[in-house]
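Fig. S4 source data, part A: sequence.
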Amino acid sequence: MKLCLLALLILTGFTAHAQVKVIKLGNGEIPKSITYKGHIIDVVKYTDADGEHLVITTETGKTPSKNSDSDGDGYRDAALYAYHYLVQTGSYKLTWSVYDFIKDCPVDIRANFIRKTFAVTDLDNNGKAEVWLMYRTVCHGDVGPSDMKIIMHEGNKKYAMRGENKVKVSEKDYIGGKYTFDSAFITAPTAFKLYAKNLWNKNLLENWDQ
């Protein structure tokens, strides 16, 4: 009983330290000086040891590609973006961005952030926040896995986890699900890798509603 209580206290303390206060903003609260592509998914601000930050994520959805015919049939594009700004004396400095896309797709296409995966943490308790993005991209005409990525930024340092999700193809059989860490993640704090693996596994199975 005492061991269980101790474990609970440790977990509670870790969770409290790992959380960063994030304030969600409305589209109308984005400064006029900031431009972006696509439609808004998330707009948040937070403060850490480096100061005040603003993060915007967007998606374009399906759009006709330049190779489409006059009716818009045929090929389509889709893209997603993330923008990170550091607020300095009232001005906004773009310090990193993420851009991924699918172009000239004649079949099913998708480039979207996975819902409820965006997060801001401080897992290593160093006062600098980590920003987590997770998304899928695919162009296919059959039932197969999508490319899946987790991109995390701590300051100007980028960490990437790349692979594919898992799809059920029969009563007992699945395909996909493998991933690799980039060199930054391989040498990252254990807390980063554990968080990434948990996020990956939680969203591993294909969700056709997203």
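Fig. S4 source data, part B ends here. Confidence is low (pLDDT under 50) at residues 2-17.
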